[in-house]
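quick one if you have a minute, typing this from the bus. below you get a single protein, a line of residues and a line of whole numbers that encode the local backbone shape. could you go over both lines and see whether the tokens make sense for that sequence. anything you notice is useful, everything is just below.
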Amino acid sequence: MRAYNLGKTAILAVFAALLLVSGPASASVIDQMIDGLSGAVFYKISLFGTPVELIVIWMAAPMLFLTVYFGFINLRSFKLAGRILKGQYRDDNAPGEVTQFQALSTALSGTVGLGNIAGVAIAIAMGGPGAAFWMTVIGFFAMTLKFAECTLGVKYRKHHEDGTVSGGPMYYLGRGLAARGWKKIGFVLAWSYALFAIPSLLQIAQVNQSYSQFSAVTGIDAPWLFGIVLAGLVAVVIVGGISKIASVTVKLVPLMAALYIGAALFIILSNAAQIPDAFALIIREAWKPEAGIGAIIGAFVWGMRRAVYSTEAGLGSATIAHAAAKTREPVSEGMVALLEPFIDTVVISSMTALVIVVTGAWQVEGLTDIQMTSWAFNSVIDGFDIVLAVAVVLFAYSTIISWGYYSSKIWAFVFGSSTTSNTLFKVVYVVALIPGGVFTVSQVFDIMDSFFFLMAVPNIIGIYLMAGELKRDIKSYHARLKSGEIKRADQMVESPAR
């Protein structure tokens, strides 16, 4: 109990310090704190004579290992995942709070957004066009990691008497490893994850980049006012919980994605003659042997950093949304979840990269963030920067409300789920959004990258330990599907939820 109280005190102290630096603290103090945090998380080792961030290797390894270990399930199960998503195996009497489609929409609203618009631009600005190639490759392998963690999220979710559920790494690390006789290890990993995840309440990247585009289009210089208005709109939705959030995201995400993808396709097709050269440039820059192994690794590292932020694979955050899905089959939800990185990174981020390259935006001096993407769109569709500003704000909004749900579950795990605790969380979460526009883009992404990568450390350890169990679950699911034990929705007989 003493350790528990110390843990809560430590979390509040760290969170208070982070909120403090967003206020009137001097720029040098902010930079020193951010540099110290980023330097510790992104510790470098020498690889082929080139400094490489150890955490990047830590993230890449399970994606590759699990893809091979599960027999390339990201490819083999792609069609089945689509059938599940369409509702062919839907069971309305299964435990859970939302449909599998709604769970995916909520999770996608947390990933599809600024990572695809600003994140790709930042990756290209820092690592060259080759970073976009590595983002796509990583997105492909991230599908398997997302499958693994979301399957565990449903399998070890906690059911409450009122019909609601709680899931996420805090639960499957603790409950899953305890079921294997490793209770102490599970306890340490679950609480480590919670400690690292609490600062993710600071969704400043979403506020920062949406304000950047809003300010560029309107000319309004009012970051605090923008933060207050956005925070108020978020508060309206997160009060309603997962059902309210899902009802908003299930409408908002497809609309935003259609708008953005439609515009991107128009630009790409308008520059159809440049597409072969654009692909050639991206691939050449990804490998560029003439620049040495260091340049290749540099492009890979930036692709990896932005791909993790875009897909959230390995962070465990999306498992919280997927744990609420109505299903009796954890593996089926894992298959639905593997579609996320494909939609988010393999498709949407790749399209953004193509738009930036074919228009030449990556060569325009001084463009290092979302303004690069904005310039690219506006160079073909005059005035689209205004449409993009609206889309960006909506993308940021949907991501923030999804993370509001994620963060509420983490908060409840640490501080309890009483009415007082729940109210305090909502106040803290909403207020923490307000200063997001004040930070610089480098400060924002150093802060968020640091905390996101820290979350992945205990999560990935747990997934490694339960990989064998997951493989057996996959085999069992396919066998029962083949035998007809798992029935399609039109074959099911109504039965009470378990």
Notes: Confidence is low (pLDDT under 50) at residues 1-26. The chain has one domain: 45-486.
